[in-house]
Specification:
This protein has 425 residues and is mostly beta strands. Among the domains are: 33 residues, no CATH class; 131 residues, no CATH class; 102 residues, no CATH class. It is built from five helices and 27 strands. The protein is elongated. The protein starts with a helix and ends with a strand. It comes from Candidatus Ruthenibacterium avium. This is VCBS repeat-containing protein.
């Protein structure tokens, strides 16, 4: 059983326990419910590694699960030193020790696991953990340590050789990613440190092609960005780059695009990179970049304006999804209901040709042709219930349901776009 599947089963079991607890049937006294929720069933190999580490420490360890990122397990199995044998890296804390997370590397000796190196980390939590390829001849381990509420984070890149775990670089960061943007076969570490003063946000690129991890480039970002929340890789045609998501000094969020160009990173588009920040500025943090077609190309949500009805204003927004790594053209168009968090995709050629009108009930609204006033579709966003009358159920999430009543002027192809274009943010 893999970690993710094991965790899902475990969460369902704990949910049942919590329900029983509320009824007085089960007591979880002395147990940390949050830790129970985050502790899936371990595999045979993971159990063997944990047992060996417990024996080495002389006490029972507490596994430390990453709070985010793609790798959600406290165990990372990889051939770190390039000798053809797999090692195990473990993230943990102990009752007797401080609250600091520790990292241990174990080597396999036949059927046994032996601790080769043990080192304290730089925080009480693990924000992210990732295996990367920064240098030739092995793999490296990147750990994002953090304080309890994840407001202060420190990245450490570890190398492993000759049974020793050594620190290759340590940096404070708000967000990071590891990508091969220059087709070298090796990844680069890209991170945005916390701003030390207003208008001082920058991206740093660290390279390990020489065998040592060194600073390759520092790129100043738009002065309106104050804190980076995410770095996401994107590609469009032959171009590769990074979409920066960040908070704005004036409030809200925005994006900026960085492109790999002739061995360096540059702000993109070259002529007016600031246009991306301006166009993508938005107050609703729920709207984030999306890979619309699952091709590795990220589209940025831009809000050119809002739709006002007789009873509402600043609730419904037109959303244009743009690929700024190419020509910035709109790849998709839709309407975002900021109250319910529902996004409705509509045909691209409806842009500028439609208006919204109130429905007969709350949370019911109509998309109409601007020129004739004809109703194309009536949308109802409410509880997850049986569709009323001629309404069609488009999509549900939890207790929220999106239903539609199509007008005669809405063609089958247009209906198909709406039927498959519902997203929850």
């Amino acid at each position: 059983m893999n970690i993710k599947k094991g965790r899902l089963i475990f969460v369902l079991c704990i949910g049942c326990l919590l329900m029983l607890t509320a009824c007085g049937g089960v007591s979880l006294t002395g147990q940390n419910v949050e830790e129970l929720l985050r502790a899936p069933q371990l595999s045979t190999m993971q159990n063997a590694v944990q047992t060996a580490l417990n024996h080495y420490l002389g006490e029972t360890l507490q596994l430390k699960y990453p709070r985010g990122g793609e790798e959600m397990a406290p165990f990372l199995f990889e051939d770190f030193d390039g000798d053809g044998a797999q090692e195990a890296a473990v993230l943990y804390t102990t009752e007797a020790g401080a609250k600091t997370v520790n990292i241990a590397v174990l080597e396999q000796d036949g059927s046994d696991w032996l601790v080769a190196y043990n080192l304290p980390g730089l925080g009480a939590e693990v924000a992210q953990a990732q295996v990367v390829t920064l240098t030739e001849g092995g793999k490296q381990l990147v750990i994002g340590y953090a304080n309890a509420n994840l407001t202060e984070k420190y990245l450490v890149a570890y190398g492993y050789a000759d049974d020793q775990l050594h620190v290759m670089t340590t940096q404070a960061y708000d967000a990071y990613t590891a990508q091969d943007l220059f087709d070298t076969g090796l990844q680069q570490l890209l991170l945005v440190p916390p701003a030390t003063q207003p208008g001082a946000l920058s991206m740093q690129v660290y390279d390990g092609s020489s065998g040592e991890v060194t600073l390759r480039q520092t790129l100043l970002l738009d002065e309106r960005l104050t804190r980076c929340t995410a770095l996401d890789a994107t590609q469009s045609g032959q171009r590769r780059g990074i979409v920066v998501s960040a908070e704005l000094s004036a409030g809200g969020t925005a994006n900026q695009v960085v492109c790999a160009d002739d061995g360096a990173l540059v702000l993109w588009p070259k002529d007016h990179p600031e246009d991306v920040v301006q166009a993508s500025s938005r107050t609703d943090e729920a709207l984030t970049v999306r890979d619309l077609w699952q091709r590795g190309t990220l589209y940025i949500p831009c809000l050119p304006g809002s739709f006002s009805t007789q009873s509402t204003s600043q609730r419904y927004y037109a959303v244009e999804w743009r690929d700024y790594l190419s020509d910035g053209s709109t790849g998709q168009f839709g309407i975002f209901d900021s109250t319910s968090g529902v996004y409705v995709r509509v045909p691209l050629y409806w842009k500028g040709e439609i208006q919204l009108e109130d429905g007969l009930e709350e949370n019911v609204w109509r998309i109409c042709q601007k020129s004739t006033g004809e109703t194309l579709v009536v949308l109802r966003i409410g509880t997850n219930e049986t569709p009323l009358g001629a309404y069609q159920m488009l999509r549900t999430k939890g207790s929220v349901a999106v239903m539609a009543l199509f007008g005669e002027g809405c063609t089958p192809s247009e209906r198909s776009i709406l039927q498959t274009g519902i997203q929850f943010f």
